[in-house]
Specification:
This protein has 313 residues and is an alpha/beta fold. The chain contains ten helices and eleven strands. The strands form two sheets. Strands 3, 4, 5, 6, 7, 8, 9, 10 and 11 form a nine-stranded parallel beta sheet that branches. Helix 4 packs across helix 5. The chain starts with a helix and ends with a helix.
Length: 313
């Protein structure tokens, strides 16, 4: 009887332990999911070769000018405007070429030190694509390396200009620039002004990639009189086809609501496959335009209204 009793008590104990662990597991998982949902996500990703990139997926709605782009400036047929920039170009020979061959006026941002940057930037120019310099900037995450030619907060003005000039000179035919990473660097008004004034001196426009909600880059560019815009959607913050399709759809919806929207993607095989398959359908709903076209649309009277609307934002 004692042996039987001991087996029965052991069975009861063995049932209680898994139940307790299960409850604990659900509590911890639920708490973790809750934190992720209420907090902005800044995530570094490695796209194979080349330095990682950093994306910031905001839970807040993207910012726009106080009024939408007039329909008369939306060719053809008054469709909303969408610009798609492919960042991190210059490190993936075959994939870069495939993206450049897509039948749509995409824009391309090249990392200064990419082994294929000069060759592919020249190819993009022959394809009549917009070319940007993807300027590496210091991220907030410790231990994440933005790659060669990075600007950091520890640099003085002379050092920043020295590195920046080399970065800008490394990408032929560039007409604009945007930040690679930079969730720390773009929060500094002092440092961004150094960068933006050099960009203005060269007659370039600037696109704020918005890798942090604390960025001052876009507002400072406008304050300094530099043509500037900021992205609304990261297409491949997670490089899965389902996510990219969802974000591409969100980009179209935002463009329909506001007259235009800017998306940023990266040289992932999944990004290429989704764009190749879905762009013909997307182009029936919106007009995909080079990023420089959006810059031209915003210049003029709208620019003053936009600047006033963003005071203190």
């Amino acid at each position: 009887m004692k042996k039987g009793g001991s087996r029965s008590s052991r069975k009861k104990k063995s049932k209680k332990i898994p139940l307790f662990l299960l409850i604990l597991f659900f509590l911890v998982t639920g708490f973790t999911v809750l934190i992720l949902l209420i907090s902005p996500q800044i995530i570094p990703f490695h796209g194979g070769k080349g330095p990682p990139y950093e994306v910031f997926r905001e839970r807040l709605p993207p910012r726009y000018p106080p009024r939408p782009v007039p329909k008369k400036k939306r060719p053809p047929y008054g469709l909303p405007l969408v610009a798609i920039i492919i960042d991190d170009m210059g490190y993936h020979n075959r994939l870069d070429r495939l993206l450049l061959d897509l039948d749509a006026p995409l824009s391309f941002s090249f990392l200064p030190s990419g082994p294929f940057t000069k060759v592919h930037a020249n190819l993009a120019w022959r394809h009549k694509k917009d070319i940007l310099v993807h300027i590496p900037m210091e991220p907030a995450e410790k231990g994440v390396n933005p790659g060669p030619g990075a600007l950091t907060l520890k640099m003085d003005a002379g050092s920043i200009l020295n590195v920046l000039e080399k970065d800008l000179d490394s990408v032929p035919h560039a007409i604009g620039a945007n930040n690679h990473m930079g969730s720390l660097f773009t929060t500094s008004t002092e440092k961004m002004d150094i960068v933006l004034l050099e960009i203005k001196k060269r007659g370039l426009f600037f696109i704020d990639s918005r890798t942090t909600k604390y960025t001052v880059a876009y507002k400072e560019a406008l304050r300094l009189g530099i043509p500037a815009l900021e992205r609304q959607v990261f297409l491949d913050y997670e490089p899965r086809a389902a996510v990219i399709k969802e974000e591409l759809g969100r980009l179209v919806k935002l463009a329909k609501r506001h007259g235009y929207a800017i998306g940023i993607g990266h040289p992932y095989p999944s990004t290429y496959k989704v764009l190749k398959m879905d762009l013909p359908l997307v182009q029936k709903e919106v007009n995909i335009v080079p990023i420089s076209y959006l810059i031209e649309v915003i210049k003029g009277p709208e620019n003053e209204i936009w600047r006033k609307g963003h005071k203190g934002s």
